Amino acid sequence: MLSSTERDTEITGWALAAGLGDERAAELFVGATYDDVRRFVAHLTADTRGAEDLTQETYLRALPSLRRFAGRSCARSWLLAIARRVVVDRYRRASARPRIADTTDWLGAADRAQPRQLPGFEESVALADALRALEPGRRQAFVLTCVMGMPYAEAADVLGCPVGTIRSRVARARRDLAAIWDGGSEGVDGREPVGSRGVVAA
Q: pTM of the full predicted structure?
Protein backbone atom coordinates (compact mmCIF):
# COMPACT_ATOMS: atom_id res chain seq x y z
CA MET A 1 0.00 0.00 0.00
CA LEU A 2 1.55 3.26 -1.13
CA SER A 3 1.62 6.30 1.12
CA SER A 4 -0.05 9.50 -0.05
CA THR A 5 3.35 10.99 -0.97
CA GLU A 6 4.40 7.87 -2.87
CA ARG A 7 1.06 7.81 -4.69
CA ASP A 8 1.44 11.46 -5.72
CA THR A 9 4.97 10.72 -6.97
CA GLU A 10 3.62 7.81 -9.02
CA ILE A 11 0.83 9.94 -10.51
CA THR A 12 3.30 12.71 -11.36
CA GLY A 13 5.52 10.15 -13.06
CA TRP A 14 2.62 8.98 -15.20
CA ALA A 15 1.80 12.58 -16.11
CA LEU A 16 5.37 13.25 -17.21
CA ALA A 17 5.49 10.05 -19.24
CA ALA A 18 2.12 10.85 -20.82
CA GLY A 19 3.45 14.25 -21.80
CA LEU A 20 6.17 12.44 -23.74
CA GLY A 21 3.58 10.42 -25.64
CA ASP A 22 3.17 7.30 -23.48
CA GLU A 23 -0.49 6.37 -24.00
CA ARG A 24 -0.51 3.72 -21.25
CA ALA A 25 0.82 6.30 -18.78
CA ALA A 26 -1.96 8.67 -19.85
CA GLU A 27 -4.55 5.97 -19.13
CA LEU A 28 -3.03 5.31 -15.70
CA PHE A 29 -2.94 9.04 -14.94
CA VAL A 30 -6.61 9.48 -15.79
CA GLY A 31 -7.63 6.33 -13.89
CA ALA A 32 -5.73 7.42 -10.77
CA THR A 33 -7.12 10.96 -10.69
CA TYR A 34 -10.63 10.72 -12.15
CA ASP A 35 -12.49 10.20 -8.87
CA ASP A 36 -10.64 13.09 -7.20
CA VAL A 37 -11.51 15.47 -10.03
CA ARG A 38 -15.15 14.39 -10.07
CA ARG A 39 -15.54 14.76 -6.30
CA PHE A 40 -13.84 18.15 -6.37
CA VAL A 41 -16.06 19.67 -9.05
CA ALA A 42 -19.18 18.06 -7.54
CA HIS A 43 -18.48 19.72 -4.19
CA LEU A 44 -17.66 23.07 -5.78
CA THR A 45 -20.85 23.15 -7.82
CA ALA A 46 -23.23 21.13 -5.61
CA ASP A 47 -24.31 19.51 -8.89
CA THR A 48 -23.50 15.80 -8.82
CA ARG A 49 -25.10 15.13 -12.18
CA GLY A 50 -23.24 17.93 -13.94
CA ALA A 51 -19.94 16.90 -12.36
CA GLU A 52 -19.40 14.24 -15.02
CA ASP A 53 -19.42 16.82 -17.83
CA LEU A 54 -17.10 19.13 -15.91
CA THR A 55 -14.74 16.23 -15.23
CA GLN A 56 -14.64 15.32 -18.91
CA GLU A 57 -13.97 18.95 -19.80
CA THR A 58 -11.12 19.03 -17.30
CA TYR A 59 -9.37 16.14 -19.02
CA LEU A 60 -10.05 17.60 -22.45
CA ARG A 61 -8.04 20.63 -21.32
CA ALA A 62 -5.44 18.79 -19.27
CA LEU A 63 -4.36 15.93 -21.52
CA PRO A 64 -3.19 18.09 -24.45
CA SER A 65 -1.33 20.26 -21.92
CA LEU A 66 0.63 17.38 -20.36
CA ARG A 67 3.48 17.94 -22.81
CA ARG A 68 4.05 21.31 -21.09
CA PHE A 69 3.80 19.88 -17.54
CA ALA A 70 7.30 20.01 -16.07
CA GLY A 71 6.66 18.25 -12.77
CA ARG A 72 7.55 21.23 -10.59
CA SER A 73 4.40 20.50 -8.56
CA CYS A 74 2.37 17.37 -7.94
CA ALA A 75 0.40 16.40 -11.06
CA ARG A 76 -2.76 15.98 -9.00
CA SER A 77 -2.51 19.58 -7.77
CA TRP A 78 -1.89 20.77 -11.32
CA LEU A 79 -4.94 18.83 -12.55
CA LEU A 80 -7.26 20.11 -9.79
CA ALA A 81 -6.20 23.67 -10.55
CA ILE A 82 -7.38 23.08 -14.12
CA ALA A 83 -10.64 21.59 -12.78
CA ARG A 84 -11.21 24.72 -10.71
CA ARG A 85 -10.74 26.92 -13.80
CA VAL A 86 -13.18 24.72 -15.73
CA VAL A 87 -15.81 25.28 -13.03
CA VAL A 88 -15.17 29.03 -12.94
CA ASP A 89 -15.43 29.24 -16.73
CA ARG A 90 -18.66 27.23 -16.75
CA TYR A 91 -20.29 29.63 -14.30
CA ARG A 92 -19.03 32.67 -16.16
CA ARG A 93 -20.61 31.35 -19.33
CA ALA A 94 -23.83 30.50 -17.48
CA SER A 95 -24.03 34.00 -15.95
CA ALA A 96 -23.76 35.52 -19.43
CA ARG A 97 -26.81 33.57 -20.66
CA PRO A 98 -30.43 34.31 -19.76
CA ARG A 99 -31.58 32.19 -16.84
CA ILE A 100 -34.15 29.62 -17.85
CA ALA A 101 -34.65 28.06 -14.46
CA ASP A 102 -34.21 29.00 -10.84
CA THR A 103 -31.04 27.58 -9.26
CA THR A 104 -33.06 26.03 -6.48
CA ASP A 105 -35.02 24.00 -9.01
CA TRP A 106 -32.08 22.31 -10.69
CA LEU A 107 -30.30 21.73 -7.40
CA GLY A 108 -33.48 20.14 -6.12
CA ALA A 109 -33.79 18.01 -9.23
CA ALA A 110 -30.22 16.78 -8.83
CA ASP A 111 -30.86 16.05 -5.17
CA ARG A 112 -34.05 14.11 -5.93
CA ALA A 113 -32.21 12.02 -8.51
CA GLN A 114 -29.79 10.63 -5.93
CA PRO A 115 -30.39 7.11 -4.50
CA ARG A 116 -31.61 7.77 -0.97
CA GLN A 117 -31.28 4.19 0.24
CA LEU A 118 -27.47 4.31 0.24
CA PRO A 119 -25.67 4.42 3.63
CA GLY A 120 -24.62 7.92 4.59
CA PHE A 121 -27.00 9.62 2.17
CA GLU A 122 -28.55 11.97 4.74
CA GLU A 123 -25.11 13.00 6.03
CA SER A 124 -23.82 13.71 2.51
CA VAL A 125 -26.89 15.86 1.75
CA ALA A 126 -26.40 17.79 5.00
CA LEU A 127 -22.74 18.40 4.16
CA ALA A 128 -23.58 19.52 0.60
CA ASP A 129 -26.21 21.94 1.91
CA ALA A 130 -23.78 23.36 4.46
CA LEU A 131 -20.97 23.74 1.92
CA ARG A 132 -23.28 25.72 -0.35
CA ALA A 133 -23.59 28.35 2.39
CA LEU A 134 -19.83 28.95 2.65
CA GLU A 135 -17.98 31.81 1.02
CA PRO A 136 -16.43 30.35 -2.17
CA GLY A 137 -12.78 30.62 -1.12
CA ARG A 138 -13.50 28.93 2.19
CA ARG A 139 -15.53 26.22 0.47
CA GLN A 140 -12.70 25.41 -1.93
CA ALA A 141 -10.09 25.24 0.83
CA PHE A 142 -12.34 23.12 3.06
CA VAL A 143 -13.25 20.66 0.29
CA LEU A 144 -9.62 20.14 -0.73
CA THR A 145 -8.25 19.64 2.78
CA CYS A 146 -11.10 18.27 4.88
CA VAL A 147 -13.21 16.40 2.33
CA MET A 148 -10.51 15.18 -0.06
CA GLY A 149 -7.72 14.94 2.50
CA MET A 150 -5.21 17.05 0.58
CA PRO A 151 -2.24 18.53 2.51
CA TYR A 152 -2.45 22.28 3.05
CA ALA A 153 0.62 22.93 0.86
CA GLU A 154 -0.92 21.01 -2.04
CA ALA A 155 -4.24 22.82 -1.62
CA ALA A 156 -2.33 26.10 -1.74
CA ASP A 157 -0.85 25.03 -5.09
CA VAL A 158 -4.30 24.21 -6.46
CA LEU A 159 -5.82 27.52 -5.38
CA GLY A 160 -2.75 29.63 -6.08
CA CYS A 161 -2.42 31.19 -2.64
CA PRO A 162 -0.11 30.96 0.40
CA VAL A 163 -0.42 28.05 2.84
CA GLY A 164 -1.32 30.53 5.57
CA THR A 165 -4.34 31.63 3.54
CA ILE A 166 -5.49 28.01 3.25
CA ARG A 167 -5.16 27.54 7.01
CA SER A 168 -7.14 30.71 7.65
CA ARG A 169 -9.89 29.78 5.17
CA VAL A 170 -10.23 26.27 6.58
CA ALA A 171 -10.43 27.58 10.15
CA ARG A 172 -13.11 30.07 9.13
CA ALA A 173 -14.98 27.43 7.14
CA ARG A 174 -15.05 25.16 10.18
CA ARG A 175 -16.36 28.04 12.29
CA ASP A 176 -18.99 28.86 9.68
CA LEU A 177 -20.08 25.23 9.35
CA ALA A 178 -20.42 24.96 13.14
CA ALA A 179 -22.59 28.08 13.10
CA ILE A 180 -24.72 26.66 10.26
CA TRP A 181 -25.29 23.34 12.00
CA ASP A 182 -25.99 25.05 15.32
CA GLY A 183 -28.17 27.80 13.89
CA GLY A 184 -30.35 26.02 11.34
CA SER A 185 -30.82 26.82 7.68
CA GLU A 186 -30.36 30.60 7.57
CA GLY A 187 -26.70 30.35 6.63
CA VAL A 188 -23.59 31.92 8.10
CA ASP A 189 -24.35 34.75 10.53
CA GLY A 190 -27.98 34.79 9.36
CA ARG A 191 -27.03 35.63 5.77
CA GLU A 192 -28.55 34.03 2.70
CA PRO A 193 -26.45 30.97 1.71
CA VAL A 194 -23.73 31.90 -0.77
CA GLY A 195 -24.67 28.95 -2.97
CA SER A 196 -27.87 30.72 -3.97
CA ARG A 197 -25.90 33.57 -5.53
CA GLY A 198 -22.66 32.09 -6.87
CA VAL A 199 -20.65 28.92 -6.68
CA VAL A 200 -17.00 29.78 -7.06
CA ALA A 201 -14.86 32.85 -7.09
CA ALA A 202 -12.35 33.50 -9.80
A: 0.66
